[in-house]
Every structure is written in structure tokens, then in C-alpha cells.
Amino acid sequence: MLVNLRSMLQKADREHYAVGGYNMTTLESAMAIIEAGEEEKSPVILQVSEKTIDYMGLDLAFAVAKTLADRAVVPVCIHFDHGRNFPMVEDSLKIGFSSVMLDVSKMPKDERIEFVKEFVSKAHHLGATVEAEEDQIGGREDYVDGNRGHFTDPKRAAQFVRETNVDAFAVSIGSTHGKPLPHEKLDLELLAEINKAVDVPLVLHGASSTDEKVVREAISLGICKINIDTDLRLAFTRELRRTLKDADIYDPREELAPSRDEIRDEVIKHIRLFGSSDKA
Ligand code: G3H
Ligand code: 13P
Ligand code: ZN
After folding, report:
1. In a domain, 262, yes or no
2. Mean pLDDT of all residues in 162-188
3. Is residue 204 part of a domain?
């Protein structure tokens, strides 16, 4: 069943768990994410990035996600991840995405609030929700890159959220996209300050390979949505390399199914860590 972020994250906030935002890169990963949610009776956020849209087209990416969401017996949010191509984000809302992320970290500071506020009002009118990122989240992952120096300022974040009316806010507290960088460390004291200042659910990006204890602490400090992409790609690729060693396998379905199952198991692991099992 297709939902937006609002009810999903409000419940997570009240009951102190987080819902995973899992990136779909192919049909197989989309199937695996939904299968994991159903097995665990967990809500899931199926995320589509600009790179995935370039790979399979907005219409096909949405058709896959929507078919899976409609079939699912758990709540599924179809979310545009890291929207920097704003006309493309608008198109995704028109086609039926239930949620979008606006990444305004590359936009001049004095234009951000007006732009996001107007966008949020359009999205709400269509029944969709908006997550926003103001300060760059570190690391690099294909289309998404950022500088580690820009951590979230709690006061500025509070003003941004109040004035734009966004539904969720992505924090920059030291996590990085992609494979973990040396010395990557989350600033949990800063997270506690942001949590006091900002009254919408908080989002943690770049959470692959983050220490489990740190993830649990971050959830206790207001993180309600946690984005995972790299861990899923690594699981897929590891298994595919193993499968391809068998020269007798030359059917793409037999090559891809074990990798799809590995993504499902990886998502299940995260669902359990985030505490969203049985929360559907
Ligand atoms: O946060 C970044 C996402 O993992 C998207 O990655 O642009 O390679 O699809 P991508
Ligand atoms: P990782 O790939 O580092 O898990 O980050 C995912 C993400 O933040 C998607 O927006
Ligand atoms: Zn991200």
C-alpha cells in the first residue's frame, strides 16, 4: 500500500524506531526491498535516485515501484532521493511519487528557503511529502557528492524547517555516502542539539556500515529515517561474483536471483537493527 512519509515517520518518532530508506538500483533490488519489508512486517521507503532514473527512465522506475507498492501488504513510500534536478523532481510528483527529497545544498543560501517553501506547498497539494537537505552530507556516490566540512547548525536548521514546512530534515553530522571513509565519526552531541531545536523527524544519510551501537543511539536521538544504498550494492555484487564463477550458469535469471536474495537478507538485517519489524 502506497503511503507518504508523514504517518510513517510520525509513528516511528512516537515509538522510537527508524524506517529504512532503501535505494532501488534495478528491478531485482526493488523486488528484494519489498520482499524484506513483507517478511519482517515492516514499513519500507523505496528510494529512486537521479542515476536510477537515468538508467531506466522515470516512467519505468515508477511503474516498477508502484506495482510493487500496490501489491505489498506493508506500507511503502516511493521517495525521490537527493533531488538536485528540480524539474525532474516535479515530474516525479506529477507521475505519482508519494515523497521527494530536495537537496538544496548546492543552491545559493539566500534562495533556499523561498524555493523549498514553494515546492513543499505544491507537493502537499498533491498529497506528497518533502524531505530536505540543506548542508552537504560528506562522501561521494556517483551523482551525489559533498564536502565533510558542512555540519548542520541547529539554529539555522530550526529556522529552515519552520519557514519551509518540510516533513523531514536530513542532518549532516559526519556520516558519509558510499564506502566508509577513514575516521568517519557521527557527532551525536550535535544530533542531540538538532533534535531539541527541530520538531520534524530527522533523517540520517550515508548510513551503510555504520556501527550498530551508534545507529541505535542515533535513533534514540530523533533519527526516524535511515538511508541505505552501498550495503545493498555490495551484497548484490559479492553474490554475483560468486555465482558467475559457475560456468554452467548462463541464464540471467539464475545469475541475478541469488544476488536479489542477498539484498533481501541485507535489508532484513537493517530492518531489525532499526527496530521497524512488526511496525507495518
Ligand atoms: O545518497 C546517494 C544515493 O546512494 C544515490 O546514489 O546516485 O549512485 O544512485 P546514486
Ligand atoms: P550509503 O550508500 O552510504 O548507505 O548512503 C545512502 C544514502 O544516503 C542515500 O540517500
Ligand atoms: Zn543520501
Report:
1. yes
2. 92
3. yes
- Flag whether 280 is in a domain: no
For the CA of 178, the closest atom of ligand 2 is: 3
| pLDDT value of residue 212 | 96
Q: Which residue has the cell 515523497?
A: 99
Does pLDDT of 145 surpass 70? no
The one-letter amino acid code at 267 reads: V
Specify the pairing of strand 144-146 against strand 138-141.
antiparallel
**Whole domain around residue 130: which residue ranges?**
2-274
Joined together, the cell numbers standing for residue 137 give 552530507
For residue 144, give the CATH number of its domain.
3.20.20.70
Residue with cell 519489524: 277
Write down the pLDDT at residue 58.
98
Q: How many domains does the chain have?
A: 1
**CB of residue 229 inside a 6 A radius of ligand 1:** yes
Dihedral sign of CA atoms 103, 108, 111, 112 in order: positive
103 lines ligand 1 (CB under 6 A): no
Cα angle at 132 between 128 and 135, to 5 degrees? 175
How large is the average pLDDT for residues 225-239? 98
Is 62 part of any domain?
A: yes
CA distance 262 to 235: 6
Which of 13, 54, 70, 81 is an active site residue? 81
